Recover the amino acids of this structure.
């Protein structure tokens, strides 16, 4: 049975961030993820997770100035030193929080620009080398350009090429079902084909990015496919509840651990 992780950036938003851990546990989740932890000390977050009996399975490396519209700095040659510092910060948090995987955001940059693509590749290798001794995976997530215009990694084939060509065992694919459907479709076959390089899966309905079961895909069938192909990881619930999180958790009842 798929194991679901509540995304605390998007879910339980009616509560302060640190209170969302207990709310997720009360709702039946045993794991959580979130975008960024950096507004709180790592030890404080660890205490909230431990008190709720939750495992943290994923968060993002620092993305630059998120409020100003930055969505990663990995692809910018002129910001290599800044990236190294951001990587160190993210790894410090991951070690304190015992998080096994980190999402590395590429940035808003032209996908056909050789300097940006080369720098992104170098940043991935740097992150993987730094994270490897701690047993941490670095994840690459293609994001659709309808939601994130200009994002460099907007194609699953590019992510697959980077992972295969780098050949680093701790560089893996973050397969977001929502983004996959918008970019390419063919969700279940892609899950089967790409399973060997998938490090994490995320879900949301399409096109609204709301609860599973509220969009055009048969989400229950997709969750069953994950079981049948032998996916062993968590499925991050990176969706925006249509109302309060609790009112929209009917889809989750059959999957509670």
């Amino acid at each position: 049975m798929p194991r679901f992780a509540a995304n605390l950036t998007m879910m339980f938003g009616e509560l302060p961030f640190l209170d969302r851990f207990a709310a997720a546990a009360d709702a039946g989740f045993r794991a959580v993820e979130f975008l960024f932890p950096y507004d709180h000390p790592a030890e404080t977050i660890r205490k909230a997770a431990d008190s709720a009996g939750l495992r943290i399975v994923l968060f993002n490396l620092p993305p630059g100035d998120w409020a100003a519209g930055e969505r990663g700095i990995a692809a910018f040659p002129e910001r290599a030193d800044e990236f190294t510092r951001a990587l160190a910060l993210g790894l410090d948090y991951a070690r304190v929080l015992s998080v096994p995987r980190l999402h590395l955001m590429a940035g808003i940059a032209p996908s056909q620009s050789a300097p940006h693509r080369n720098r992104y590749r170098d940043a991935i290798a740097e992150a993987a080398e730094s994270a490897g001794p701690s047993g941490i995976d670095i994840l690459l997530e293609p994001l659709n350009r309808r939601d994130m215009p200009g994002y460099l990694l907007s194609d699953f084939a590019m992510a697959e090429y980077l992972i295969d060509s780098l050949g680093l065992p701790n560089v893996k694919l973050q397969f977001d079902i929502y983004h996959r459907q918008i970019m390419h479709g063919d969700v279940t076959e892609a899950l089967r084909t790409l399973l060997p390089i998938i490090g994490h899966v995320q879900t949301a309905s399409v096109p609204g990015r709301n609860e599973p079961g509220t969009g055009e895909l048969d989400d229950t069938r997709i969750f069953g496919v994950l079981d049948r192909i032998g996916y062993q990881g968590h499925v991050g619930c990176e969706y925006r509840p249509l109302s309060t999180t609790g009112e929209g958790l009917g889809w989750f009842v059959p999957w509670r651990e």
